[in-house]
Amino acid sequence: MKTNVLGYPRIGEKRELKKANEAFWEGNLSEEELLAVAENIRVHNWTLQKEAGIDLIPSNDFSLYDQVLDFSFTINAIPERFAPTQSLSELKQYFAIARGYQKDGIDVTASEMTKWFDTNYHYIVPEFTKNQAFSIKVNKPLQEYNLAKKHGFETKPVLLGIITYLLLGKEKEAGFHRLELADRLLPVYIELVKSLVEAGAKTIQIDEPYLVLDLPQGAAEAYKKVYTALKAQFPNTEFILTTYFGALENNTELAVSLPFDVLHIDLVRAAAQLDSVLKALPKDKKLSLGIVDGRNIWKNNFEHSLALIEKVKEVISSDRIYIASSSSLLHSPCNLELENNEKVLTPEIKQWLAFAKQKVKEIATLKTLALGHDLSPEVKAIFEENKKAAQNRKTSTLIHNPEVKARVKAITDKDSQRKSAFATRQKVQEEALHLPLFPTTTIGSFPQTPEVRSWRASFNKGTLSQAEYDKKLEKEIEESIRWQEQTGIDVLVHGEFERNDMVEYFGELLSGYTFSKFGWVQSYGSRCVKPPIIYGDVSRPKPMTVRWSKFAQSLTKLPVKGMLTGPVTILQWSFVRDDQPRSETATQIALAIRDEVVDLEKAGIKVIQIDEPAIREGLPLRKADWQAYFDWAIRAFRISASGVEDQTQIHTHMCYSEFNDMIEAIADMDADVITIECSRSQMELLDVFADFKYPNEIGPGVYDIHSPRVPSKDEIYHLMKKAIAVVPFRNLWVNPDCGLKTRHWEETKLALTAMVETAKKLREEYKK
Length: 768
Ligand code: GLN
Ligand code: ZN
Hints:
Elements lengths: L1 E3 L11 H11 L4 H22 L5 E2 L7 H8 L15 H10 L1 E3 L2 E3 L4 E3 L6 E3 L2 E2 L11 H11 L5 E5 L1 H7 L1 E2 L10 H18 L3 E5 L11 H15 L4 E5 L9 H6 L4 E5 L7 H7 L5 E7 L9 H14 L5 E5 L21 H4 L5 H16 L5 H19 L6 H8 L12 H12 L16 H12 L4 H22 L16 H6 L1 E4 L6 E4 L2 E3 L3 E7 L6 H9 L6 E5 L1 H6 L9 H21 L4 E5 L14 H16 L7 E6 L8 H6 L4 E4 L20 E4 L12 H14 L18 H21 L3
Parallel strand pairs: 1-14, 2-8, 7-9, 8-10, 10-11, 11-12, 12-13, 13-14, 19-20, 20-21, 21-22, 22-23
Antiparallel strand pairs: 3-4, 5-6, 15-18, 16-17
Helix pairs in contact: 1-2, 5-7, 7-8, 11-13, 15-22, 17-18, 22-23, 25-26
């Protein structure tokens, strides 16, 4: 039996890498200084894994920016358009590909990023051409292996698998499929592996998470071909084939047939696959059991894990079993020990948690317990403590709120339905709101100026009193309302100045939520997020936003939109419970939001927006599972929105993704109005409306808020005309792509003025 870690977080316990990278980009840190920080982090990570007793410690799991980019860089798959960066140092060139570069007479835009499977981590998308060539540019895997060796660590190099790497990329021209490049990549891959083997590597991990997805045509053959060829070259090297984030299912036969020595499977995300994998696994192969969750923050339940290991032991012998993290630990925060503020994270809750460093220890302890002979008093004590924590979590009154559970149980179909159908609501709302054709609105937030942020910081530190803070916010809201009135916007917003983040803000006001101080997880490059933690049944002790919306509405006769985050997005951007299904947690949040919606209506708010930007990223990896997701996710949204009268207009907002393939589910949400990101793709989204008649009102974003660029009236007009071609014009709204909180007021004012003027022009044109 061996212990196996698939990868460790690389940002550093206190985000040292983030800080060093950003300082380097600003020109405030030298290359040597940056590389020294990067080396320290690796040595720190290797040390703690070795001290914990991990047998297979990963190397090349580190990255300065992204592991997929690292691989592209290693094999010289650098898109042609970055040719001008060749004059830069290697390191600067690397970052230029990631982030773009506009200096020294060079002007290249950043590479595209997209989500790493169904996580919140974003990788740099490889770009391939038909004649794509590969060669070793920098042998980063070898450099890292040797670095570890220099510091006295024997490691297991981690390589992205050939097929997964190619499938993660994109063809940049027509006439070929990227899988056809496998043959050309193979010799370079063999060269890489050869260098590692010659340097002394005994075990190599090859990541092929694509095996848990629906594979495209030809992939199975490509898998067999390249890995048969690879293994033939290195008969004495132990190769671990790693799959994670889901079940192998129909790819089980393929996976076990590949000439790997060890198969790794994710038993946290997909425990049910164990039986079929055990049945299919050939006698000469080992199995790596991914049982310590790489993507969440809960302490492992040792009794459960041991039961599972026992089950495996009945089929295969101990020496063929590896105990492992389910995936790389990249997706969990670094170190729970740093959380020593009992007001932020109480000791009772803390005892239920484990971050990466603690998870590494869990893996080691599980092996000791599973082997079972002569347990030291220390290990026995750890086991006892683990059992106690699990028991406590099962019964804690902090977690279990019978009222919430009963309310969820009592939900009926009626609760997820508005009183009348959309056509009826539309008429009633027209009378209640008196909006013009092509009504204008914004998505909610206005610029969060350094000033606004500084008030919040002072308030949190205690140097600004609640009353003073509120006063400043009220003044900011009043100014924004006046400006919107003057500019001629039809449905106003209060501006969200009181919010730090659209999920954290609600998390802080809901029960069942807690927070960490250092629970950072890499999102992309130097960007980290600190997801709040849902530990218990969620409920809303008191209204959360009514005070601000009511105040804003009191200042004007025009409608002010209430502004809420929807249940699916709150769920998606938090660490969630693993002791009940996601659907159950989503429903609890939905009820809390529903109460807020009803309270807003009671307070005189006539338009309420429930943001669901994350609804698409919750989609399961396999298409066969989509419908089940829609069933609960769309229902959760509808529960949150359906407590109000017909004349209250419910908006929702979505961004960050392509929605073309789930447009019917979006329609099924039955929001009266949806505002949706569209402008970056030049309204490509609207193509689907040629076939699918979206039934309700829609505001396709008319300009990209991610850039400071001010759109011209012409551009906006042109985009709206595209929309008018496929959506009945009476159903169209005019609005930006997303919230404006990252923008400056200057460009915001210019852009929104252009937007309002365009709407006026359209009104003239379509008057009759
Ligand atoms: N209402 C939020 C805002 O305007 C929406 C943010 C988002 O969609 N990501 O900031
Ligand atoms: Zn948005």
